[in-house]
Amino acid sequence: MSQREVNRLGVIKRVMDGALDQGQAAQLLGLSVRQVKRLCRSVREQGPGGLISRKRGRPSNRRIAAERREHYVQLVRNRYADFGPQLAHEYLQREHGFAWSVETLRGWMLQAGLWQAKRRRAKRVHSPRARRQCLGELVQIDGSHQGVSEFLCARCSETCPRRRASLATNAKPRWASRSPSYAPAFVNRSS
User: Fold this and answer.
1) pTM over cut 0.85
2) Structure confidence by residue, pLDDT tens digits, 21-60
3) How far apart (Å, rounded) are the C-alpha atoms in residues 172 and 181?
4) Of residues 143, 144, 140, the one with CA closest to residue 172
5) I need a labelling partner for 86 at 20 to 30 A (CA). Which of 9, 37, 122, 177 fits?
């Protein structure tokens, strides 16, 4: 019995003992009162086995006949052995009147050993970069021409658009607060 059927059996036994009425059991199980009556009757007549689905273990009514399946697998084996399921499906549809889905054909090809499923590549995990330990280890200089920085430019005596910040600590390095002549050699002082 599945866990769902075991749960149903517990509720149906409570109904049969009189602890629950059929309406409450129907709400608990998400069924109609009529279905609860049918379940109670099947438990009385057959015991707990009456709750087990009679369809379990039986083949589907919609399954494709084995002869027809084998016919199409043989066609793929003889004519389209080097094709993938999608291309084989297109040819079978056009040339032989195949009426089922690509996934059906893919399953048949897998079982017959004519196709091997490709392994999906595992997604790469991109963890965020940890902050650097040293002050000024990574320095970013923003040379945008927007008046967002608080540094004064030596040439024009107005707000300079160059921003300097350390990516390690989000703090300005010591040389950024001094005059532009003291800046390191890699800073462009001409503009």
Assistant:
1) no
2) 999 999 999 999 999 999 999 999 998 888 888 888 888 8
3) 17
4) 140
5) 122
